[in-house]
Amino acid sequence: MHPSLSAVRLRGATKRFVGLGKKEVLTALDSIDLDVEESSCVALIGSNGAGKSTLLSILMGTLLLDEGVLQLDHQDVGEQPSWKRADKIALVRQNPEHNVLSALSIEENFALAIMGRERAFGLRRYDRDAVRHAATQALAKFGMGIESRLSEAAGTLSGGQRQAVAVAMAAVRNPRLLLLDEHVSALDPKRAKVVAEVTEDIVRAQSITTVMVTHDLSHALKHSDRVLMMHRGRIVMDLSGDEKNAIGFTELASRFEHLVGEALPDRTLLAV
Amino acid sequence: MIRDVLFLGLQIGLLYGPLALGVYLAINVLSLPDLTLEGSFGLGGAASATGLVLGLDPVSALLLGMCAGALAGLTTAILHVVLQMNVLLAGILMTTAAWSVSIIVMGTGNISLVRAETLFVWAEAIPLGNQAATILVGGVVTLLFGLFLTWLLGTGFGLATRVTGLNIQTARSMGIRTEMHQVIGLMLANALAAASGALVAQSQGFMDVSIQGGVIVVGLAALTIGMSVMRSDRIAAGVLSVVAGVVIYRCIVALSLRMGIPPNAVKLITAILVFAFVAARIHGKGIFTVTSFVGWQARRRKHMQFLENDRVAPLF
Ligand SMILES: Nc1ncnc2c1ncn2[C@@H]1O[C@H](COP(=O)(O)OP(=O)(O)O)[C@@H](O)[C@H]1O
Ligand SMILES: [Mg+2]
């Protein structure tokens, strides 16, 4: 892989939130420079409030930058609204309610994903057979049997199943950039493992550039090409290649604690 | 008697069919509580009546009325999307303004259409009688708009409109330009309400600005009754149920008048009816029955949870 093939480029990216008092300003992203190599998988870790979700929202376009430049495939997209970026970027959030429309059928959700890929919501009905075919193929990988329930309302699915649907919808969209914001952290450990692993397979098979936020340090080490750690709106650690391969979980955990100045949440340690 | 009531319900109810469809589109599909629909009803009547007086044919006059409604919807949508105003507030102001605009359009508070050719005069050429002619015209117009709305909401564009009404954030990250769907949806909904205003003016043979007063409640009654009769997420069922709702509502009004309730009480009955259907939707049929102590306790707990979850939403 050539290093100049950067799919995402951030320069001096800054995002501030004005507090309730209108006087205190919280800098959620503090002049971040970042290049993400094409087809690579980047894991993003950091304590609560570090700015990870803010960074993903900036990439998706649901939040706009105060300062700085955002390029996707060497094109400035910082001024584009999220709906214009939807043919290039897909975001899977932590809460299934925000990824899948419960009131619509699973089939209709996939139809939306496919129409969103071309941003073509025209005056024609969607091609039912094509949608069902694509949905079945994408869902079968999860082995949860969702592919046989395409006509049911998505709201009848469990949280884990809905996250599987969300990832499958993203796979069908085949975006240039996939953003995963703790997309398995609301699931029970068994389901979380299945969804995370299938997501991994899909990302590798379709070689989608991916940024995934995770609480699970060992997962971050094992399944990514690069690990970034954020703290108070800055990237404080950037590991890849031999450096990343050399570091173990304990080493990473102690560096995390050193940089953040606080102990890791129990949840993270238990996830080992 | 039952036949009488049913025919009266159909006769008047179907004139309000397009309004019910507009209310369904704005409030149910788009989740926008747009009160402009009431003003558009009056505006549609005014523009259509003026068109007839100026010598337009009835169909063109109906379309003219609908354009006036669409313009009112566009204005509300711009107030909401561009000026970031609460839809409820924008609608209240627009409806107030529409009253004056209707009078300005007509040049006076009311105009007679006795000498004008209307859709209903056309229909009476078929020797069926006045009532049947009204049912026929209202039915055909409502059917056409109902089919159109069902078709539209089934297309990719319509699916995107539905998603806009469900979750704006999710819709946008799916590639849907939500503000455009709100603008077009409100224009269409108000055009439908205006079509009802035009139909009512044409059928009664005169136009008076006061016809718009309180019609939003007719739409709300249609929506709540319709949703209680038929519970389904399917679009065709939703469209059918809201039209059924408006007919049932007018049947209930006709029945109350038959039973000797004074006409002045109709608005009170309507309000009580809407309250009852909404309450039944929220609480199930249980609210009207006396239950055991345990049932009462459970209900009390549910109510306390509601108070805990209650939030204020600033209007400005
Ligand atoms: N919409 C918002 N308004 C105000 N402050 C916000 C908003 N979103 C996030 N923040 C603040 O920005 C900081 C970073 O938040 P976030 O990106 O969600 O952190 P993370 O995902 O890493 O836990 C936090 O301090 C949070 O309170
Ligand atoms: Mg977060």
TrEMBL record, chain B:
Alphabetized UniProt keyword annotations: Cell membrane, Membrane, Transmembrane, Transmembrane helix
TM segment ranges: 6-27, 62-83, 90-113, 133-160, 181-203, 209-229, 236-257, 269-296
Bilayer topology: Multi-pass membrane protein
Entry's localization field: Cell membrane
InterPro entries (alphabetical): ABC_transp_permease
Protein name in UniProt: ABC transporter permease
Species this chain originates from: Mesorhizobium qingshengii
Higher taxonomy: Bacteria, Pseudomonadati, Pseudomonadota, Alphaproteobacteria, Hyphomicrobiales
